[in-house]
TrEMBL record:
<dbReference type="InterPro" id="IPR051343">
    <property type="entry name" value="G-type_lectin_kinases/EP1-like"/>
</dbReference>
<dbReference type="InterPro" id="IPR000742">
    <property type="entry name" value="EGF"/>
</dbReference>
<feature type="domain" description="Bulb-type lectin">
    <location>
        <begin position="18"/>
        <end position="155"/>
    </location>
</feature>
<keyword id="KW-1015">Disulfide bond</keyword>
<dbReference type="InterPro" id="IPR001480">
    <property type="entry name" value="Bulb-type_lectin_dom"/>
</dbReference>
<feature type="transmembrane region" description="Helical">
    <location>
        <begin position="469"/>
        <end position="493"/>
    </location>
</feature>
<feature type="binding site">
    <location>
        <position position="555"/>
    </location>
    <ligand>
        <name>ATP</name>
    </ligand>
</feature>
<keyword id="KW-0723">Serine/threonine-protein kinase</keyword>
<keyword id="KW-1133">Transmembrane helix</keyword>
<feature type="signal peptide">
    <location>
        <begin position="1"/>
        <end position="22"/>
    </location>
</feature>
<dbReference type="GO" id="GO:0004674">
    <property type="term" value="F:protein serine/threonine kinase activity"/>
</dbReference>
<dbReference type="InterPro" id="IPR008271">
    <property type="entry name" value="Ser/Thr_kinase_AS"/>
</dbReference>
<dbReference type="GO" id="GO:0048544">
    <property type="term" value="P:recognition of pollen"/>
</dbReference>
<dbReference type="GO" id="GO:0005524">
    <property type="term" value="F:ATP binding"/>
</dbReference>
<dbReference type="Pfam" id="PF00069">
    <property type="entry name" value="Pkinase"/>
</dbReference>
<protein>
    <recommendedName>
        <fullName>Receptor-like serine/threonine-protein kinase</fullName>
        <ecNumber>2.7.11.1</ecNumber>
    </recommendedName>
</protein>
<dbReference type="InterPro" id="IPR011009">
    <property type="entry name" value="Kinase-like_dom_sf"/>
</dbReference>
Length: 813
């Protein structure tokens, strides 16, 4: 009792020391931290390091990280969720059962400490930790009762190694995207299982490794005792490889000092750098910074000479090395950075070159620029001729495929997009001629009157020059065309529904059914028509007065909680759509947990069964279907009052009506399944093989995901086969998108329509459709055309420019 009568301040004093101890050493089960601007952290006993939430620059997002805590600018040395930052209120907890988890405010696990499987296949269990601690080395450990480590941050590195940390066989450091973007970047340091330490680039998102730009040469196949076993960063700041015979191979041999902090970081520009920072107590004032003491490779621009990958600067750029040994990236004239925030991500052409200039002369459309000492040693030449400066310059200007011509030692090397591994090397006596479309070419009217139109896109990232090639030379016909286009534009605008009409439409057009109605109509949900990502579809029959109508009843069973709230809104949006290439919604039922949609019945099955079936539709009807589906998508994306992203375009979702007109089904449902509160919980929608790369990255989902899926489907329509056919005799043909691009590159498109005589006799159209499809499946969403532009290109109203390689980071290109 006496204890409780103590005055409060004294009581607090008693508590304080134990509180501090528990903060600085052992972290007990049940402890947690919550992400906020002022959130506390768990510190190492010396106070050098802290573990906790690190706030991203100018953002309300946090990384679970470890950083140097005693220097003014927090420098992260480890982070868990770079690809997946946590929002305010997220929580990291050492759970009662000894696990370390990071959870979002609504309870989803964003990250957890999982056991890493060693190269020898042994996995250590993370469960059963008795406590955790942040050691003075900067290593965060989960400790079992027997003092062995269940998990340690040192074995799960991000982009940095600290003194006393080792990289084991198979271990990887990954660079960040940019200094402030902690998403996984393109570069990695990898201690290969055979003993070589390499720096290489990976092709995101699949993480395929390209040729190394640094190799330690510590893999001895003849005598494995001479092979590398681990990479060591020792206490005094030395970095070396220890071989199996315990000999060492020095990497960094600078003179260490106890008065410095050290770290070795694989920087976002691909250079592995060891840094030192004077320890604060010795340095006195805080005006210090990290200085590099060692780095490799010394010239990354030159070192990146593998055949694959894109060099250090990405495609269509060139790399120069500064006095500090750091690369800098520049775009060619006529190109701009594809991501202004990340100059290592390559450049895209401001205007896409047109290979069909019609009557206008190349010299009126393009300027030739010169860059001394610049070349692209690893970009394939499509032509090499002996020539002088003028000839080289001219021959590129007049060759529609040529983007750059390099003149070197009396030879002219013509290159087309994409350009890779561009470098400036003053020791090379040569120059590059670059073809740049004139900025005023878009309103250029040549003497014969052919007009260059610039199609408007919603995102103006890649204006594409297109020309009305349909129209011979007559200015009068051009004039008519422009009038026709204007009328069309006005008409399509008027077609759009005004939002105010929304509610009335629901009442007038849509029937509300009871569950019992539908149970009777489907005879107790007896005949199953198919299963989608939303639930099962049943056939049913309605008997309104004097007639019988077949219906398809979709029972939605996987709606998320948010989707539940949005059900009415979404049904409303779907109800307002009316287009001959969409399946029409007739009614709905919402009774407690029962959510059903009633559609008109499509008697001829799916496009999939038609395409992959035994009697394939004719080439002509296939191209017609491709046009019609594209029109349906234009309608969904641009012509209804709220744009609808389908998210799951594939032949299984295209139904055929009585007259074999293709109709898009399942649209408008994506939102019901998608909880877009936190992006992290957004499961990938869509179907493998048809989903765009945005889903795998932290990128906004736009209508361009449908364009991608449409592109894959278009190839399937052209070739009458599935995108992926594992059992293909010829392995190269297994993935349709890759194979078709290969054939396109080799100008052997006849191979993709081999047994289709009708198509073989119409190769111009086959090529045009393939080119459109390749534009659609560009990995970079901003390069994909809008569906409206797709329809123009399919119909031949505009010329299709030459598409670049769809996946620029891969060996396909
Ligand atoms: C941390 O916990 C372990 C096991 O309970 C104990 O042996 C050790 O003394 C603790 N260390 C500190 C500094 O409290
Ligand atoms: C931890 O994460 C892994 C994958 O990230 C997952 O497979 C596993 O189920 C998670 N463990 C727990 C306890 O949530
Ligand atoms: C490894 O060998 C290659 C080829 O001989 C050489 O170019 C490279 O410089 C060597 N790497 C090191 C770190 O010595
Ligand atoms: C670190 O490695 C260097 C080079 O092998 C060696 O000279 C030095 O003694 C090592 N330092 C420690 C503390 O082990
Ligand atoms: C590595 O560096 C250390 C310290 O500079 C030196 O003592 C040692 O001899 C070097 N080892 C080799 C194999 O070069
Ligand atoms: C700390 O970071 C800021 C912004 O990144 C930078 O301007 C400043 O120079 C840094 N200070 C030190 C001491 O490194
Ligand atoms: C390229 O980037 C520059 C600088 O951001 C900008 O001024 C220019 O308009 C861009 N060009 C195009 C065609 O987007
Ligand atoms: C290339 O040819 C064009 C057209 O003839 C000419 O105007 C230009 O000056 C030439 N450029 C160079 C760099 O020689
Ligand atoms: C476009 O600009 C070039 C010079 O940059 C000029 O020679 C040409 O006449 C211009 N064309 C038009 C149509 O303005
Ligand atoms: C980081 O880069 C990735 C990939 O370019 C991007 O998706 C993401 O939005 C960026 N994150 C931030 C915080 O800017």
């Amino acid at each position: 009792m006496a204890f409780y009568s103590l005055s409060q301040p004294f009581f607090l004093l008693l508590l304080l020391p134990t509180f501090v101890v528990s903060q600085t050493s052992n972290i007990t089960l049940g402890s947690y931290l919550v992400a906020s601007k002022e959130s506390p952290s768990w510190k190492s006993p010396s106070g050098d390091f802290a573990f906790g939430f690190y706030q991203l620059q100018n953002q309300d997002h946090f990384l679970l990280a470890i950083w140097f805590d005693r220097i003014p600018n927090r420098t992260t040395v480890w982070y868990a969720n770079g690809d997946n930052p946590a929002s305010q209120g997220s929580k990291v907890e050492l759970t009662r059962d000894g696990k370390l988890t990071l959870t979002s405010p609504n309870g989803l696990i964003l990250w957890n400490a999982t056991s890493t499987v060693d190269t020898d296949g042994t996995a250590s269990s993370v469960e059963g930790a008795a406590y955790a601690a942040l050691l003075d080395t900067g290593n965060f450990v989960l400790v079992r009762k027997d003092f062995t480590y269940a998990w340690e941050s040192f074995n799960n590195p991000a982009d940095t190694l600290l003194p006393t940390q080792e990289l084991k066989l198979g271990g990887i450091l990954s660079s960040k995207q940019t200094p402030s973007n902690y998403s996984r970047g393109r570069f990695q340091l990898h201690l290969l299982p055979k003993g070589n330490l390499v720096l290489d680039t990976i092709s995101l998102p699949k993480a395929n490794e390209n040729a190394a730009y640094y190799i330690s040469n510590t893999s001895d196949i003849a005598n494995s005792a001479n092979s590398g076993q681990r990479l060591v960063f020792n206490e005094s700041g030395h970095i070396y490889i220890v071989l199996r015979n315990e000999k060492i191979v020095n990497l960094s041999d600078q003179v260490p000092s106890q008065d410095y902090y050290y770290r070795a970081t694989l920087d976002f520009d691909g250079i592995l750098t060891e840094y030192a920072y004077p320890k604060p107590q010795r340095a006195g004032n805080a005006d210090q910074s990290w200085s590099p003491v060692w780095s490799t490779p010394s010239d990354i621009c030159q070192a990146m000479n593998g055949d694959e990958g894109l060099g250090s600067c990405g495609y269509n750029s060139y790399c120069t090395i500064g006095n500090n040994g750091r690369p800098s990236c520049q775009c060619l004239p006529g190109f701009n950075f594809s991501d202004p925030d990340n100059k290592f991500n390559g450049c895209i052409q401001d205007r896409i070159q047109d290979c069909n200039p019609g009557p206008s002369k190349a010299e009126d459309l393009y300027d030739m620029h010169q860059l001394p000492n610049t070349y692209w040693p690893k970009s394939a030449n499509f032509e090499r001729t002996q020539s002088n400066e003028d000839e080289c310059n001219q021959s590129c200007l007049y060759d529609c495929e040529c983007v750059v011509a390099v003149l070197k030692e009396g030879f002219c090397y013509k290159k087309k997009l994409p350009l890779t591994n561009g470098i400036v090397d003053r020791s090379v006596n040569g120059k590059a001629f670059i073809k740049v479309a004139r900025s005023n070419a878009s309103n250029f009217l040549n003497p014969k009157g052919s007009r260059v139109l610039q199609l408007q896109k919603k995102d103006q990232s890649t204006p594409i020059l297109v020309r009305s090639f349909l129209l011979g030379g007559s200015a009068f016909i051009n004039f008519l065309l422009i009038i026709a286009i204007s009328i069309l534009a006005i008409w399509s605008c008027n077609k759009k529904q005004k939002p105010s009409q929304m509610s009335s439409l629901l009442e007038s057009n849509l029937q509300s059914f009871t569950y019992q109605d539908l149970e009777e109509a489907t005879d107790g949900f007896k005949e199953e028509l198919g299963r989608g990502s939303f639930g099962i579809v049943y056939k049913g029959v309605l008997h309104p007065p004097h007639s019988t109508i077949c219906i398809a009843v979709k029972k939605l069973d996987k709606i998320t909680q948010e989707g539940e709230k949005e059900f009415k809104t979404e049904v409303n949006a779907i109800a307002k759509t009316l287009h001959k290439n969409l399946v029409r919604l007739m009614g709905f039922c919402e009774e407690g947990p029962h959510k059903l949609l009633v559609y008109e019945f499509m008697s001829n099955g799916t496009l999939a069964s038609l395409l992959y079936g035994d009697c394939r539709p004719t080439w002509k009807s296939r191209t017609q279907m491709a046009f019609e589906i594209a029109r349906g998508l234009v309608y969904l994306h641009e012509e209804c009052s709220i744009p609808i992203i389908h998210c799951d375009i594939k032949p299984q979702n295209i139904l055929l009506d009585d007259s074999f007109i293709p109709r898009i089904s399942d649209f408008g449902l994506a939102k019901l399944l998608m909880s877009n509160q936190t992006r992290t919980t957004t499961a990938i929608r869509g179907t493998k093989g048809y989903v765009a790369a945005e889903w795998f990255r932290n990128m906004p989902i736009t209508t361009k995901v449908d364009v991608y899926s449409y592109g894959v489907m278009l190839l399937e329509i052209i070739c009458c086969r599935k995108n992926y056919e594992e059992e293909r005799e010829n392995e190269e043909e297994a993935i349709l998108t890759d194979w078709v691009y290969d054939c396109y590159k080799e100008r052997r498109l006849d191979k993709v329509v081999e047994n289709d005589e009708e198509a073989i006799n119409d190769m111009t159209k086959v090529e045009r459709l393939v080119m459109v499809a390749i534009w659609c499946i560009q990995e970079d969403p901003s390069l994909r055309p809008s569906m409206r532009k797709v329809t123009h290109m399919l119909e031949g109203v505009v010329q299709v420019p030459m598409p670049p390689c769809p996946t620029p980071f891969t060996s396909l290109c």
